[in-house]
Design brief:
Oligomer: single chain
Order of helices and strands: HHHHHHHHH
Radius of gyration: 35 Å
Largest sheet: none
């Protein structure tokens, strides 16, 4: 019998032992069969690395064991996501959207009346209370509340946002949507 024939014959003879070893590791017959199959594929692909006269059984068992532990390490990093919900949560918005949104905001903010820009800057950006803003502007608290409300509505309208802050279709926007151009 030639060397490749002897190698294959010994390989076939060791199959029950390989399967038993795989079963002891995997505790699942289907996974054990897959391990044995992967081991045989690797062994046949790397037959030139096997040194004739050495222990084929030990070589095959080492391949099987290493493959099993490699799979375990790989599975620890993987997440079951059959329906794709986990992957969808990992999506990151493109960074350029932030700069486009900021430019849209600047354009819309500049279109507001000066008193509206003033109260939004005081109450919205600077964190002043209505009372503090009223004192700074020299008017009643009710006037500040009214201006803030009207300014926010106008700004949302200019940015194309509905009452919940969600985008409305572009035909309802006063500023042209530069992201879709």
């Amino acid at each position: 019998m030639n060397a490749p024939g002897a190698f294959k014959a010994e390989l076939i003879e060791l199959l029950p032992s390989l399967r038993a070893f795989a079963r002891s590791l995997a505790h699942n017959s289907a996974q054990a069969d897959d391990l044995v199959q992967d081991t045989l594929v690797k062994a046949l692909a790397n037959v030139e690395r096997f040194e004739p006269g050495t222990n084929l059984r030990a070589w095959l068992f080492t391949i099987l064991r290493n493959h099993y532990y490699s799979q375990l390490r790989k599975l620890k990093r993987e997440v079951e996501d059959a329906d794709g919900k986990f992957a969808a949560r990992l999506a990151v918005r493109p960074e350029q959207d932030g700069s486009v949104d900021l430019e849209d905001f600047k354009v819309a903010f500049s279109q507001l009346a000066p008193d509206h820009r003033e109260v939004l800057t005081l109450v919205g950006a600077s964190g002043c209370s209505y009372e503090e803003a009223a004192q700074i502007c020299g008017c009643a608290v009710g006037t500040i509340k009214s201006r803030v409300n009207r300014a926010r509505r106008k700004l949302a309208d200019l940015l194309g946002l509905d009452d919940e802050g969600q985008p409305i279709p572009s035909e309802g926007r006063m500023i042209e949507d530069t992201a879709s151009v």
